[in-house]
């Protein structure tokens, strides 16, 4: 290996804004919560006298409703038990004695925060008529939908989020990727604006509650419900749009897909939901084999309830650790539903650590962890996976100091880690993989970014591993502090046909790109030419450099370029196995 690559992870930051260990908490009081068997009239002070509801749950009664948490208090949730409620604790802890919600100190497994509602009537389909007319009915199961449900509630089967049956048939990662959709030629724009798409389609797509997915400005997928489908195309006059408004491009071809089609539930992991018929149908994963009178237990099936898991507002010095969050779905376009953890306002001293978060879907809405205005923040060692249509960790409008550190994010349906108007913060030692959607970004830093370090991360098999864009001529969010972003010592791999392992869309001041391994073909590094104070040095690139022809911002001098079929291929294979260095997460 050449010296530049050997140095790739040698530089470890001299300090991180916070110590890696969670703050020591005074064991003042310990309360126990068992959603299955607890009693709110009990004292909550032992496993035998646990409460059903935790403090901060609006549905709690008696003692948990009356309790005011004090600094140093711990609330332990019983391992393996599903807590179906929304928690909004507001009590302040202190830096020395935070309040702790703990999902891993009672029992041998994690406590579960479940954002769904269990369904009844789960059974194999008896006929096509029994299951929304699907021609695949012999492989399918059905469940009864409660009144008031929506297709967007999404279906969860054995704690896995299922995907809407779609045409053309796509993987979950590409469900909102317009480049995999059907083409509407630019010449058809007038007809599209009139509410009609002419396109030959298979018969049977008029069953159930079909949806139109359309690529619209500004680079979003809008979903229309209340459409009419025939073999000749789609009429959507009067349709209701969610996720994005109807605003098609006028200067290029358009792209569309059809979703929630019973006949396209044609492989394991797919479903279709028809609230007007009161039925959801699904094809179980291989472990959920078809039951026959008394054989093989029915799978556990639920739908999203729109509630969030834990919300934080004015709470200070609060720790959330050791939980398994699962089965959350929000209302499309609604920013107050469906997140596992959501914080806003004056929340300070928040620690989110050692949690598992999976099976979350929010169309046009929140992320898995969404924090607005939070300060003095740590998000560490969490595992986030299988979140179609949904961002991973979002930090918005934060003066810091904050650390997003040593988390693992896999198959997020949108940007894995996103910073908007953030200062004095670090994104270090995280592993991100398989982000392929319309917004398939690994790590982004946008708008007014000041004193932010993106370092020691490994991003692989992702459409755009790192994207950057400054505020330009807009009004700065912060009134003081020098703008500046340092991107250093990362492994960033986009792959073939992906322009930009690092992509700068411009106007980012004081951007330093140093000692990274970058792989994307044809170009590993893309800059707009409008950056000021840009420095790029010591990087190893498999792929080229793309910048405006007249720009002299960057030169190959100071960086090392490798041919993809020569030494570069060896480096690619090596870096595909890379992990953050021990100095970040050891």
Description:
The chain is mainly β and 586 residues long. The protein has 2 domains: 120-303, no CATH class; 344-356 and 368-586, Pectate Lyase C-like. It contains 5 helices and 49 strands. A hairpin with a 2-residue loop joins β17 and β18. The longest helix is centred in the C-terminal third of the chain and has 9 residues, at 567-575. The two termini are 24 Å apart.
What features would you highlight for this structure?
Pectate Lyase C-like, 2 domains, mainly beta, 586 residues, globular, 38% strand, six-stranded antiparallel β-sheet, 31-stranded parallel β-sheet, disordered N terminus, single chain, 49 strands
Note poorly predicted spans. 1-26
| CATH C-level of the largest domain | Mainly Beta
Alpha-beta classification: mainly beta
How many β-strand runs?
49
CATH architecture of the largest domain: 3 Solenoid
What's the short version?
The protein is mainly beta and 586 residues long. The chain contains five helices and 49 strands.
């Amino acid at each position: 290996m050449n010296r530049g690559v050997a140095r790739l992870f040698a530089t470890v930051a001299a300090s991180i804004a916070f110590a890696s260990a969670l703050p020591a908490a005074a064991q003042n009081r310990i309360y126990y919560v068992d959603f299955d068997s607890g009693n709110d009239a009990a004292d909550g002070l032992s496993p035998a006298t646990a409460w059903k509801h935790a403090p901060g749950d609006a549905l709690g009664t008696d003692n948990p409703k009356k309790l005011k948490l004090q600094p140093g208090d711990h609330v332990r949730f019983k391992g393996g038990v599903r807590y179906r409620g929304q928690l909004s604790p507001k009590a302040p802890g202190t830096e020395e004695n935070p309040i702790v919600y703990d999902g891993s100190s009672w029992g041998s497994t994690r406590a579960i925060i479940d954002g769904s509602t269990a369904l009844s009537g789960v059974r194999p389909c008896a006929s096509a008529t029994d299951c929304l007319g699907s021609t695949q009915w012999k492989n399918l199961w059905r469940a009864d939908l409660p009144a008031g449900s929506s297709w967007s509630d999404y279906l969860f089967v054995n704690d896995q989020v299922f995907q809407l049956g779609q045409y053309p048939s796509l993987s979950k990662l590409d469900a909102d990727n317009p480049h995999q959709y059907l083409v509407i030629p630019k010449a058809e724009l007038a007809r599209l604006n009139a509410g009609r798409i002419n396109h030959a389609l298979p018969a049977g797509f008029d069953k159930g509650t079909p949806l139109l997915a359309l690529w619209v400005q500004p680079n979003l997928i809008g979903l229309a419900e209340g459409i009419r489908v025939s073999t000749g195309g789609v009429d959507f006059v009067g349709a209701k749009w969610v996720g994005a408004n109807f605003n098609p491009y006028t200067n290029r071809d358009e792209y569309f897909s059809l979703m929630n089609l019973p006949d396209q539930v044609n492989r394991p992991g797919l479903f279709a939901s028809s609230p007007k018929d009161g039925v959801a149908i699904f094809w179980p994963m291989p472990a959920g084999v078809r039951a026959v009178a008394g054989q093989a237990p029915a799978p556990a099936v639920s739908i999203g309830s729109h509630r969030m898991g834990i919300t934080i507002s004015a709470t200070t010095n609060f720790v959330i650790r050791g939980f398994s969050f699962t089965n959350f779905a929000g209302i499309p376009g609604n920013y107050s539903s469906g997140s596992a953890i959501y914080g806003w306002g004056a929340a300070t001293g928040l620690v989110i650590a050692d949690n598992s978060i999976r099976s979350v879907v929010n169309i046009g809405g929140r992320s898995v962890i969404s924090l607005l205005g939070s300060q003095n923040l740590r998000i560490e060692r969490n595992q986030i996976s299988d979140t179609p249509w949904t961002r991973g960790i979002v930090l918005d409008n934060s003066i810091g100091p904050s650390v997003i550190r040593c988390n693992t994010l896999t198959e997020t349906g949108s940007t894995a880690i996103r910073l908007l108007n953030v200062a004095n913060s670090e994104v270090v030692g995280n592993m991100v993989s398989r982000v392929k959607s319309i917004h398939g970004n690994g790590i982004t830093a946008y708008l007014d970014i000041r004193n932010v370090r993106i370092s020691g991360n490994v991003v692989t098999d992702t459409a755009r591993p790192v994207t950057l864009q400054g505020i330009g001529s807009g009004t700065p969010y912060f009134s003081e502090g020098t703008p500046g972003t340092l991107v250093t010592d990362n492994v960033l791999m986009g792959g073939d046909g992906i322009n930009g392992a690092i992509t700068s869309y411009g106007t980012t001041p004081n951007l330093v790109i140093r000692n990274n391994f970058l792989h994307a073909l044809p170009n590993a590094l893309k800059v707009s030419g409008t950056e000021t104070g840009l420095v790029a040095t010591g990087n190893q690139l498999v792929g080229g450099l793309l910048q405006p022809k007249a720009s002299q911002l960057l030169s190959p001098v100071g960086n090392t370029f490798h041919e993809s079929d020569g030494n570069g291929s060896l480096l690619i294979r090596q870096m595909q196995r890379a992990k953050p260095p021990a100095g970040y997460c050891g």
